[in-house]
Structure formats: C-alpha cells, structure tokens
Write a structure and sequence with these properties.
The structure holds two protein chains of two kinds. Chain A is 38% helix and 24% strand. Chain A has four helices and four strands, in the order βαββαβαα. In chain A, a hairpin with a 2-residue loop joins strand 2 and strand 3. The radius of gyration of chain A is 14 Å and the shape is globular. Helices cover 36% and strands 21% of the residues of chain B. In chain B, helix 1 packs antiparallel against helix 4 and helix 2 crosses helix 5. The two termini of chain B are 31 Å apart. Classes of the chains: A alpha+beta, B alpha+beta.
Chain lengths: 96, 191
C-alpha cells in the first residue's frame, strides 16, 4: 500500500535517523520532511517501530498515512509535484 | 549424532529443500538484518534482567528457570523460561516480540513442541501445555496445548531431516508455490 510519512522532529540526529530509515525502507523524498512510497504491512510496522524508538513524544510529530492507488489519483498536485508513476513503483528503471 | 534447533525444523516444514541447501550443500542463507528481529533480541535481554524472581501465580507457577539450554539426541535449543506448575507438570514459556493476531502461528507452536520434548527428556516430568508472551500486545499470555500427536510430529520431522542430510537426498519442494516468492534460495532452486 502507498504510505505517506510526514514528520516534524526537533532533534537533528533523530530527524536524520528517521529520514535515513525512510530511504532505507524504499520511500521517495517528496519534500524535506515528507516521504512517499509503497510498503507492505510488515515494512510499515518495522518503520513505525524504528521511528518510535528515536522520537521525543513530548515535542515531535510523525504521521504515517496509508492509501491505495485510486485514492492517490484523486489527490491534487500543484506546482513542482512528484512523479506519480515513480512513487507507485510503475517505473522500474530510471536509466537505460 | 546430528541434533537440530527448533528453527531448523520450522525451516524444514516451510520447505524440505531448506534442509538440503543449508545442511547438505552448505549454502548459507542470504539473510538480511531485520530491525524487528534485532529489537526483539534487545527486549529479550531486558526481560532477563527485570523481575528475575517473579513467578506467574495466575497460571499456577511454583518454580522457574530462565534461559535454559537443553539438548537431547536429536534436538537442542534455549528455552526462555521453564516453568514448574502446581499440578507437578512442566511447561515452556517463550517471549515473542510480536502482536497478538487472534491466532497462534504454526511456527510458534512448533517451537513450543520442540521445547516440550526437551523438557520431558531433561526433567522427566510431563508437559501438557506451553505459553507464549506477546510483548507488543501488553504482554498478552496465550496458552498452547501440547499433545502426544504434536510431539510425535516433531520426531517424525527430525527423522526426515536426518534422511536428507545423511542420505544426500534432494527432497521435493513444498507444494505451496507462494512460499517460493520470498524464499532465500529462490535463485538456485529448480521449482
């Protein structure tokens, strides 16, 4: 399922840990604190645990939203939007 | 003589070719480090330190031994907790870094069956049930009945595994093709 990860994290090292964990899970960075990509239930669960380990529950905010392809198509994207096909894993290779 | 870990038996039950590739051809599994597995090990070590003397009164525990390494002719393994119950029987208890999903997975059950055999052989006491603790569902305790049938199945599996290893036998793959999808040997296995 397509998963959005949005965060506001105060601590620098915790923030960079989270961004690395998101990249490692195979998500694409669509904005500075916003990642998007396809994760299965186990991958999402694992990422959630990793993030939960480093954040400060008093000050930080992290959201993980799940949606399917139909719901993503209904979203509006203005300006410099991301490549929809890339995040839904329809593009298999970037170079030929 | 060759003795097996419960995890080896679980692999065998997943697909007999695991045993062949890993213990006959000695091709190591291409394992990835999973965060959840690592975290589970940390929690396990924390559990060992905390509440060392605590006995679960609700299920009638009178004595316990933690982190017991047991072995017999064909099995070996480390049981998280060996419990002595009020009725004189013994029971294995295993911690799982997992969520309770309203059913007991076969792999967890198999592990407890192996431990049951080991406890019976080591302590000479009957084992009729085992326990699982789901640490991610507020330490939910689940009782798993263990009967003779289950134990004989484990013995049967170890026998089959020995046949594969000693006889260099290339076994038939599992009939569940779905399992091939994320198998670590999928690149070298002829389906």
């Amino acid at each position: 399922m397509i998963t959005w990860v949005l965060y506001d994290i105060k601590n620098n090292s915790a923030r960079s840990y989270v961004s690395k964990a998101c990249k490692h899970a195979g998500l694409y960075r669509v904005q500075y604190s916003c990642f998007l990509g396809t994760l299965n239930a186990n991958e999402k669960d694992s990422l959630e645990l990793q993030i939960n380990k480093v954040i400060n529950e008093e000050t930080d905010k992290v959201y993980l939203f799940r949606m399917n392809k139909e719901q993503l198509k209904e979203c509006s994207m203005l300006g410099q939007a991301f490549d929809e096909k890339l995040v839904t894993d329809e593009v298999k290779a970037l170079f030929f | 003589m060759q003795s097996f870990y419960p995890s080896q038996i679980i692999e065998y039950l997943y697909c007999p070719r695991y045993t062949y590739f890993e213990y006959v051809l000695r091709i190591p599994q291409n394992e990835v480090k999973y965060f959840k597995v690592e975290r589970g090990r940390e929690i396990h070590d924390e559990k060992l330190e905390r509440n060392k003397e605590y006995l679960r009164k609700k299920i009638g525990v009178t004595r316990k031994w933690t982190d017991m390494y047991l072995g017999n002719d064909y099995l070996r393994g480390k049981v998280d907790e060996v419990l002595e119950l009020e009725d004189g029987s013994y029971a294995p208890l295993d911690y799982k870094f997992a969520l309770w999903k309203d059913r007991i997975f076969e792999t967890y059950a198999q592990q407890l069956y192996c431990y049951a055999i080991l406890i019976e052989d080591t302590y000479n006491k009957p084992v009729n049930k085992g326990f699982l603790v789901y640490t991610r569902s507020r330490n939910k305790l689940v009782e798993v009945p263990i009967d003779e049938n289950a134990k004989s199945k484990v013995r049967q599996s170890t026998g089959e595994m020995l046949k594969i290893i000693d006889g260099n036998k290339f076994p038939k793959a599992t009939k569940f093709k779905k399992r091939c999808l994320n198998c670590t040997y999928r690149n070298i296995c002829t389906k």
